Prior knowledge:
It is a single chain. The protein is an alpha/beta fold. The protein folds into 3 domains: 1-38; 44-102 and 311-555, Aminopeptidase (3-Layer(aba) Sandwich); 106-308, Glucose Oxidase, domain 1 (3-Layer(bba) Sandwich), CATH 3.50.30.30. It has 18 helices and 19 strands. It has a 17-stranded mixed β-sheet that branches. It has a two-stranded antiparallel ribbon with strand order 7-8. It binds zinc ion. The site of zinc ion has 3 residues, from loops. Residues 359, 394, 507 line the site of zinc ion (ZN).
Amino acid sequence: xxxxxxxxxxxxxxxxxxxxxxxxxxxxxxxxxxxxxxxxxxxxxxxxxxxxxxxxxxxxxxxxxxxxxxxxxxxxxxxxxxxxxxxxxxxxxxxxxxxxxxxxxxxxxxxxxxxxxxxxxxxxxxxxxxxxxxxxxxxxxxxxxxxxxxxxxxxxxxxxxxxxxxxxxxxxxxxxxxxxxxxxxxxxxxxxxxxxxxxxxxxxxxxxxxxxxxxxxxxxxxxxxxxxxxxxxxxxxxxxxxxxxxxxxxxxxxxxxxxxxxxxxxxxxxxxxxxxxxxxxxxxxxxxxxxxxxxxxxxxxxxxxxxxxxxxxxxxxxxxxxxxxxxxxxxxxxxxxxxxxxxxxxxxxxxxxxxxxxxxxxxxxxxxxxxxxxxxxxxxxxxxxxxxxxxxxxxxxxxxxxxxxxxxxxxxxxxxxxxxxxxxxxxxxxxxxxxxxxxxxxxxxxxxxxxxxxxxxxxxxxxxxxxxxxxxxxxxxxxxxxxxxxxxxxxxxxxxxxxxxxxxxxxxxxxxxxxxxxxxxxxxxxxxxxxxxxxxxxxxxxxxxxxxxxxxxxxxxxxxxxxxx
Length: 565
Ligand SMILES: [Zn+2]
C-alpha cells in the first residue's frame, strides 16, 4: 500500500465525518488525516485490489458464473487461490477450500392433470395454462395425489399475533387450498417469512395435509400475473441433494402441487359456503381475516417432473481466532459468488454474458479484501472468521441453505453471519443499510463500526421488498443464527444509483465493468464490513437475538443456537 493511496483514502473517509461546511476548506483536515487513520482502524482497504478481483470475476470468460457451470467453477477456484495466497486455512471438505454442493435441478415435464370430482360424482378437468400450472417436484418424477379439498384462507399461522388460519379445520389427509401471500397489516419482513411457501407448507404438513394448491389474491395476480408463470414453465428450479441424492425440500409431506388461476379458483369454489368473490374481497383488507372451510369437491392431481443432477461448491476459508476459548466460535462473512449465466434469448451480435459485476462480484471482491485485512492485522480477532463464497444464491439461496444445514464448522458455535449482496458501488456512499440490524445485538456492532468509519446507518428504504428474507444470511437466520445483510445506502446519490441500476443493468448483460464503478467507495465498504466483523469477533459475549424478536422467537427461542441446545 503506497503512502499516496493511503492518504487519499484517509482524507476521503475523513471528509465524510466532518461538517459539510468544512468540506469546502479541506486543507487542515487532510493534513491531519495524513498522520493517522481517521477511523481508529488498523486496516486501509485497497481500491486497486477490489478492482482486480472484480475484473477477474466479472470477466466474460466466467460466462456469468451460473451455479453448476464451468464458469462458476473457475470463479470458485479463483477465490480458493486468493484464500491460499492470503494464508487463509482451508475450511471446506477434506482439507480443501471447496465444500461440494450437490445440486438437483427439476422442472415440470408436460402439463400434468388436475381433475375435480363433485359430490354428485361429476368430474371437471381443469385446463393447463388457463386454470392451473403444475409444480415441479424435487423428490418425485411421478406424483399422484387424490384427496378432498379444504380451503384454509391464507394458511398463515403466527403465534405472535394469535393467528391460526387452520383453527377449527381438519386437514388431515386432505389437499389444502390457500391464498398466496399474507395480509398486508403484518410487518413486511415478518410477512415475507409468513407468506413464503416453505413456511406455509410446513404448517400444512404439521396438520397432516398431503398437498397444497395455491390461488392468487386479486392484488397478487396484478403483481405477478398467472401468464408470467406459464411463460416460465421451462425454467429449471434448483435445490441441493443429500448423500442419497434426495432433493432437499421443506415439508415434503405436503408438496406444492399446482398454482391455480382466478379462473381455476372459480371452479374449485363451485358450491362453496362463501363465494370466491367474497373471499378475495376479504383477503384485500389489512387484516385479511379470511375464514377457511371444506370445499365441495375432491381433486386428483397427477404430475411428472424432469430431474437432473448438477455439481457446484461453496468456497470456505478460516482465519483462526487468537483467544484460546473464543476461537472455537466463528463469525461468518458471506457473499454469493454465483450469478445467472448466459442470456439465452440474446439476439445475434448482442452481449450474451450476464457478468454480475455488482451482483455479486462486488460482494465477493469486498470479502476477499476484508480477508486481507484480517490476515495483516497485528491484533488478531478473538473469534475465528469464516470466509464463505456461496453458490446457488440466484437459484433460491441454495448454497447457503446447504452450508447452514451442513456447515463445515460446528453449527452451535456459529456466532453470526454478515452477508454482502449486490452492494451498488457506483457513487461515494455516505450511509449503509443493515437489514435485520434491529433484531439482534449484531445491530450494535454495525452501529459502532459505521460510526468509526464515518458513515450513517439508515433504516430499510424498501420495506415493502422484505429484503431481510431475500439473501443468503436468511438461511442462517432459519438456523437461529443472528445475521445482518449489509448494503450501501440511499444517501448522497444512492437512491438514484440503486433504482437506475435495478431498472437498467440488474440481471442483465449491462451489469459489467463498463459501469462507472467507484472503487474508493468499494474500499470504504470493505472497511465498514471489516470493522463490523472485528467487533463481532472481539466482543466479550456472542450476539443474541433481541428479546421477543419475531425471528429470534421463531428460530432461536433461547437467544442463539448454542443456548437452545
Ligand atoms: Zn441477483
